[in-house]
Write a sequence for this structure.
């Protein structure tokens, strides 16, 4: 066991790697009422083209998410019910970059851990249970189709990326999930659910030795070979400058995506990108105030950054009656900062705010586990943020903004109200 | 681990402190409690937003935002809530704990409290253009209520079910009334509210209650004593208000239909059988172990979500589900059938599972100051003094028969179907 201490944050991580390659990270919280455990898989919706044992596979979009739903199924019933019978709260999510299964409990933690380790590493797919899930996921996809924020987000990624599978919605479509059968689910499980490609993360009250012993017993002894992935070759510029959709919304919603280069150090890049985006249009940035005073945007305006294997982008989003005017203002501000640089006080308080944002996140054990899963798949740890934020210079931030201000780097996604049909 | 203290700072100003050093953030909120039936509901709803943008000490959006960023990205949001027949208006703030400040430790709570009180107590007459902008933003927020169809269908159902009750009012105000408000009227209303409405403060963090009380006492010294605060009255009929089940169908251009069933339970947080109600809600549609999740979703594959929620001060319950239009009769029949089955008797196993699930969720609130804030401010608005621990204790003692008795009090009142007319 290795312990990594973060005295400034009053945190430490106990970690080890099992012989089968499984990484274990435990974060003690002596006073916490709950313990949160997560088994995360480095397999997301973008991993749909891979080669395994010499054969290349291109699987249908939405497979990682479908697999996530189906893993809960066990020969003697659904794992969800087993957790809830223990008073625990299980759940799972699939993102572009990972699949994670998690459980929160205030008692009987080891019983929960045993179930978690077992169901994630033991596939049980039948024609019948796969067919049933298509109805449930079909309704989940239909619900997303009515969710303007998600549709605008997917629209932006479609606009920015021509080739990279990040352009496809995480759950796929009702059509793309139709061909899914037990065989392709088993293939993906074999390709990506090897212990080597998994991380077990616990935050709360636990005994480290016991967690390790249970993980040893509960995961396959041998690590299977992990598939190698491919994301295609993505052009430097945005694919489509503007993506427009009509939905049942009261006023237009926009996302402006700024395509960035693929990062070498994704953890540091994520932090740098978030800082840079906040310097452009965070709540105390001059542009935010200008747009607010002009009545162009309100407090829905926000800035973010997104890093994934093979790419990254900055995202500015909000609601406005005039998305095109907001785009002009944003692009002009990007060019201004790219040439003039940053105001010192703005950079300093944006850093302080970013540090506070991460301290707030790590207050919640669930968020600690999610952040650690993201960080460990990039070779970092979730408490590295304090050091990372301190290390970012105004020049680092300006470099990102210069990249976003390049000709053809942006794509605007707009969801606008449906027009009345006229006869 | 934690301690809950209730204090009175002066006539009409109450303070609840949860003292804990478990979370890494601390939370401070100030709410004014008003009757939802008040003719000035729209002015009240507008007030916190205008107070934020026209404070004498921090004039303008950017001044407030920059101060918050300097406080390590503290959040300070205007809040407008409906709780039963009460309208709560005020501010909720959330800041990292003193011990994580990189410099000027000890100033974070003080700085946040000082900013919050400045916004509450030091308004200046808003210029017409500022007021017009804030009004337009509130009107946009009211219009945007229908953008989230899942929540919208529940809101519409309650509007029909409680059409003749104050509860049907929109807490954010009515666009027509909002647009007619002048700066003079708003400031006059502000003066009246400050002189008649009880103020409730909530703090959760590591500072001892005496220190919190002392600082808030000083920051609020300008607020007058209120001899006879005007408190809202709550209305929760114990019997059904109509003889037959009402059914309403509305159409919108969305892909998925939303089926919502409103029930009258008459059981509120004031009642002895409230803990049994909480468990009935959990058994019926409150978790993945619930009847609705297991039947409507898992067995019949009709939906992604089928869940229930209650308003603890109103004695009502909403069943909500997203389905295909064609599935509506089947889903409706199954939901009502499951209710009847529960009224025939809830099993000891499901009562136990629900008890574990609910107590775990309630205990986990100690990790999340903002959820404690919501709990205690709702309690305070209603004049309830029960602590979270006392509620958990009452829930531990509920028997399966009591859960069945609570189920029998749930009478379906209104079925609302938001029919998808195609996206």
């Amino acid at each position: 066991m290795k312990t990594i201490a973060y005295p400034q944050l009053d945190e430490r991580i106990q970690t080890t790697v099992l012989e089968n390659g499984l990484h274990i990270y435990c974060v003690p919280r002596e006073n916490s009422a709950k313990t949160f455990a997560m088994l995360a898989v480095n397999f997301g919706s973008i991993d749909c083209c891979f080669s395994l044992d010499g054969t290349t596979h291109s699987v249908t979009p939405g497979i990682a998410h479908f697999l996530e739903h189906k893993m809960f199924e066990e020969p003697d019933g659904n794992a969800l019910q087993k957790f809830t019978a223990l008073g625990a709260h299980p759940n799972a999510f699939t993102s572009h970059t990972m699949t994670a299964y998690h459980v929160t409990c205030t008692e009987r933690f080891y019983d929960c851990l045993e179930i978690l380790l077992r169901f994630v590493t033991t596939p049980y797919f039948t024609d019948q249970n796969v067919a049933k899930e298509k109805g449930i996921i079909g309704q989940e996809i239909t619900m997303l189709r009515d969710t303007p924020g998600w549709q605008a987000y997917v629209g932006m990624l479609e606009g920015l990326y021509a080739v990279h599978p990040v352009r496809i919605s995480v759950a796929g479509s009702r059509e793309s999930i139709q061909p899914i059968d037990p065989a392709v689910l088993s293939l993906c499980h074999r390709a990506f659910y090897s212990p080597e490609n998994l991380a077990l993360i616990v935050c709360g009250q636990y005994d480290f030795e016991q967690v390790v012993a249970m993980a040893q017993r509960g995961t396959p002894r041998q690590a299977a070979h992990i598939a190698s992935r491919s994301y295609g070759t993505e052009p430097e510029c945005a694919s489509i400058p503007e993506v427009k959709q009509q939905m049942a919304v009261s006023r237009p919603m926009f996302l402006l995506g700024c395509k960035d280069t693929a990062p070498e150090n994704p953890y540091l890049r994520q932090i740098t990108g978030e800082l840079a985006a906040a310097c452009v249009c965070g709540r105390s940035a001059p542009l935010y105030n200008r747009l607010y005073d002009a009545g162009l945007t309100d407090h829905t305006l926000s800035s973010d950054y997104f890093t994934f294997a093979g790419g990254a982008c900055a995202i500015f989003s909000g609601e406005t009656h005039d998305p095109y005017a907001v785009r002009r203002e944003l692009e002009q501000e990007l060019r201004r900062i790219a040439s003039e640089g940053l105001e010192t006080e703005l950079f300093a308080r944006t850093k302080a705010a970013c540090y506070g944002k991460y301290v707030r996140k790590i207050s919640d054990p669930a968020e600690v586990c999610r952040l650690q899963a993201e960080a460990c798949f990039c070779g970092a740890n979730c408490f590295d943020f304090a050091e990372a934020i301190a290390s970012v210079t105004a020049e680092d931030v300006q470099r990102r903004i210069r990249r976003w201000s390049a000709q053809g780097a942006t794509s605007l996604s707009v969801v606008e109200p449906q027009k009345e049909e006229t006869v | 681990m934690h301690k809950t203290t209730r204090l009175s700072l002066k006539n009409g100003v109450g303070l609840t402190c949860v003292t804990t050093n478990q979370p890494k953030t601390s939370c401070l909120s100030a709410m004014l409690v008003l009757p939802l039936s008040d003719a000035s509901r729209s002015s009240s709803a507008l007030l916190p937003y205008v107070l934020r943008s026209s404070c004498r000490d921090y004039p303008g959006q950017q001044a407030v935002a920059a101060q918050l960023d300097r406080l390590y990205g503290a959040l300070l949001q205007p809040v407008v809530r409906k709780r039963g027949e009460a309208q709560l208006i005020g501010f909720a703030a959330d800041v990292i704990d003193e011990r994580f400040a990189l410099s000027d430790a000890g100033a974070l709570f003080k700085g946040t409290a000082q900013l919050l009180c400045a916004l509450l107590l030091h308004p200046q007459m808003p210029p017409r253009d500022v007021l017009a902008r804030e009004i337009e933003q509130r009107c946009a927020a009211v219009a945007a209520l229908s953008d989230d169809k899942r929540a919208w269908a529940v809101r519409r159902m309650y509007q029909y079910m409680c059409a003749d009750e104050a509860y049907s009012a929109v807490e954010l105000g009515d666009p027509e009334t909002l647009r007619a408000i002048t700066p003079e009227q708003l400031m006059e209303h502000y003066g009246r509210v400050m002189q008649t409405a009880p103020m409730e403060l909530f703090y959760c963090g590591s500072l001892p209650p005496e220190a919190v009380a002392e600082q808030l006492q000083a920051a609020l010294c300008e607020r007058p004593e209120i001899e006879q605060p005007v408190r809202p009255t709550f209305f929760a009929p114990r019997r059904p208000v109509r003889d037959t089940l009402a059914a309403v169908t509305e159409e919108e251009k969305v892909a998925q239909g939303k089926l919502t069933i409103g029930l009258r339970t008459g059981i509120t947080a004031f009642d002895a059988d409230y803990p049994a109600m909480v468990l009935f809600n959990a058994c019926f549609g409150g978790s993945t172990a619930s009847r609705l999740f297991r039947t409507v979703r898992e067995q019949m594959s009709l939906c992604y979500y089928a869940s229930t929620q209650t308003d603890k001060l109103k004695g009502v319950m909403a069943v909500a589900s997203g389905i295909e239009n064609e599935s509506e009769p089947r889903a409706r029949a199954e939901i009502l059938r499951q209710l009847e089955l529960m009224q025939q008797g809830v099993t000891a196993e499901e009562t136990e599972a629900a008890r574990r699930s609910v107590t775990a969720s309630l205990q986990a609130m100690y990790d999340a100051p903002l959820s404690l804030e919501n709990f205690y401010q709702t309690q305070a608005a209603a004049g309830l003094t029960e602590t979270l621990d006392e509620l958990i204790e009452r829930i531990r003692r509920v028997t399966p028969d009591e859960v069945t008795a609570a189920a029998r009090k749930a009478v379906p009142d209104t079925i609302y179907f938001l029919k998808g007319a195609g996206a």
